[in-house]
Design a protein that fits this description.
This protein is α/β, with parallel strands linked by helices and 558 residues long. Helices cover 51% and strands 21% of the residues. The strands form three sheets. Strands 6, 7, 8, 9, 10, 11 and 12 form a seven-stranded mixed β-sheet that branches. The structure holds adenosine-5'-diphosphate. The site of adenosine-5'-diphosphate has 21 residues, from helix 9 and helix 11.
């Protein structure tokens, strides 16, 4: 009984096992992976439906097939070696290969396998996965990565190209600006030299005892000459600013003195036109720190225009403190007139270079249209704002709003004012003194020589730098006046050569130059010159400078 019980239990167990293995078989067949079980020779013992349909065979065809029949990458011999290794090593393997379908088409697969025992026999449990899509996706990814790399390279190439283009354009713009500014500097030099002759000769004529009518003509020659110079200076200023060559010179200054100087420049013009001219500076600070020369230039431009475009009434210069900070003031300068005024359209344009109001009545007013453009650029350099409020026919109000640092009061060591003219003092104290004049332009030479001789000096004349050096070597001059641009040897070289001569280190050398550029003037000082007189010069300036250096030399010697 117990035996039969045991037997039936064993049968039940076998049945259960059978059912269990039947269930496994079903599970295996229905698995979605391409499962196939191989015997030691590589023949299929069992396979999933997915594997069969992957290869395009029926189950009956697949069972018993050898791996070599669908393997498309490895040869039969290679497969045999691989199979043996897999059985021997008894570990899981994973590799990529290709399978061939029944219809001959080939596709990529990833095969994972591990050896097992089934019913006491070693088998290989393999699973193939079609990776065509995955490879395609990877390939697409690679391709798009490559495209990206190529795109990036292209982008970099274009950026480099563009940068090079911009750099070339910048260089070209710089070159053109340099050409323009060199041209203007040269033109200015070329115009100043004959202007020096015109104004100088006018002055000499005045000294010869002219009739009242001739004196009136001389006044007009001089006024026209100065006007022309003003225009040249404006053009130069504008080109200097545009070439980035104009730099602010910051220093402490007194606002009331600046305004007084500005009023002195334009006051006579207002008076001559019968206009009232008023300065309103209530509560303005005294000491400021900034570029007083450029600020004055801006105000003179406003005031000059206000007087020019006003026939009746008056002009007011106002200064107001808009804001007081710890270290600075926000100031507004305002020039108001009762003149012809400006239309809205004109107001929008006048701060551009060469722009002028287009009212035909204005044709009667002289002007280059540069004053306001310069004022605007000066304002930009100072971080200031310019603006205008105006009504045609009623008058205008031009504003300059600027933040200036507070200044420190300092003692201004004014040179004692001369009670007598420098010319008189020269004649009294230095009559007969030998000075050398080096100048290649005959008219300029004549003017300077006459002026110096009229002050009692004895003048040696050289027409170029080389002659000047020879003359200084041969004779003991008390002072040298030299032009800068000269043939054979220029004034800079000549100065260096003179300085190298024994006993000539302290000899005063003064430049008379038609160059209006700061750097040219600096070059004069660097070359060892003591002072600079800019052409066209007022005789007063010539006499004062010569007197100053002759006195220094005498005081140094005694
Ligand atoms: P310019 O006075 O040499 O013509 P500006 O640049 O100083 O050049 O001025 C440009 C133009 O602005 C002038 O031609 C004039 O039409 C107009 N303008 C300037 N200031 C005044 C003013 N106070 N009243 C009327 N118009 C003015």
């Amino acid at each position: 009984m117990s035996e039969s019980l045991g037997e039936s239990e064993q049968r039940r167990n076998e049945l259960a096992l059978l059912r269990e293995s039947e269930k496994n078989r079903l599970l295996l067949r229905n698995a979605s992976d391409g499962i196939h079980i191989l015997d030691i020779d590589g023949n299929v013992i069992e396979a999933s439906d997915a594997f069969c349909s992957m290869l395009g065979y029926s189950r009956q065809e697949v069972i018993g097939m050898n791996v070599a029949q669908w393997e498309a990458r490895f040869t039969a011999a290679e497969l045999a070696v691989a199979l043996r290794k897999q059985f021997e090593r008894r570990f899981r393997s994973l590799f990529v290969t290709r399978h061939r379908r029944k219809d001959g088409t080939v596709f990529d697969v990833e095969v994972s396998g591990f050896p097992l025992e089934l019913d006491g026999k070693p088998v290989l449990f393999n699973s193939s996965r079609d990776i065509t899509e995955r490879l395609r996706a990877e390939e697409a990814l690679r391709a798009s990565e490559q495209r990206l790399v190529a795109l990036n390279a292209e982008l970099e190439r274009r950026v480099a190209e563009r940068t090079a283009e911009l750099e070339a354009a910048r260089k070209e713009a710089e070159r053109l600006t340099r050409i323009k500014s060199d041209f203007l500097a040269n033109m200015s030099h070329e115009i100043r030299t004959p202007m020096n002759g015109v104004l100088g000769l006018a002055n000499l004529l005045r000294r010869t005892g002219a009739t009242p009518r001739q004196l009136e003509y001389l006044d007009k020659i001089e006024a026209s000459g100065r006007y022309l110079l003003g225009i040249i200076n404006d053009i130069l200023d504008l080109s200097k600013i545009d070439a980035g060559k104009l730099h602010l010179t910051l220093q402490d200054f007194r606002l009331d003195e600046l305004v007084r100087d500005v009023a002195a420049v334009v006051g006579d013009r207002a008076l001559a036109k019968g206009l009232e001219f008023r300065v309103d500076m209530a509560y303005a600070p005294q000491w400021l720190h900034g570029d007083s020369v450029r600020l004055a230039q801006a105000l003179v431009n406003f005031l000059g225009n206000a007087i020019k475009f006003t026939e009746q009434g008056g002009v007011v210069l106002r200064c107001r403190v808009l804001e007081k900070a710890d270290t600075s003031y926000l100031l507004r300068f305002e020039v108001t007139d009762t003149g012809i005024g400006l239309t809205k359209d004109e107001q929008a344009r006048i701060f551009e270079p060469f722009e002028q109001g287009d009212n035909s009545a204005r044709r009667k007013y002289q002007g280059s249209g540069l004053g306001l453009a310069i004022t605007k650029r000066i304002a930009d350099l100072m971080g200031a704002q310019v603006g205008v409020e105006s009504e045609a026919g009623k008058g205008s109000s031009f504003r300059f709003t600027v933040r200036l640092n507070k200044g420190t009061a300092r003692f201004q060591g004014h040179e004692a004012p001369l009670l007598e003219s420098a010319e008189t003092l020269l004649a009294r104290h230095f009559s007969g003194t030998r000075v050398l004049l080096a100048e290649d332009d005959p008219v300029s030479r004549e003017v300077a020589q006459h002026l110096l001789e009229s002050a009692g000096l004895r003048v040696g004349v050289a027409e170029n730098g080389a002659d000047a050096v020879r003359m200084v070597e041969a004779e003991d001059f008390a002072l040298i006046l030299t032009d800068v641009q000269m043939p054979l040897m220029d004034g800079l070289e000549a100065t260096a050569a003179i300085r190298a001569l024994p006993g000539r280190q302290a000899l005063p050398v003064l430049a008379i130059t038609a160059s209006a550029f700061d750097e040219d003037r600096r070059r004069c000082l660097d070359a060892g010159m003591n002072d600079i007189i800019v052409k066209p010069f007022e005789p007063k300036r010539l006499f004062e400078t010569v007197l100053k250096w002759l006195s220094k030399r005498r005081d140094g010697a005694s």
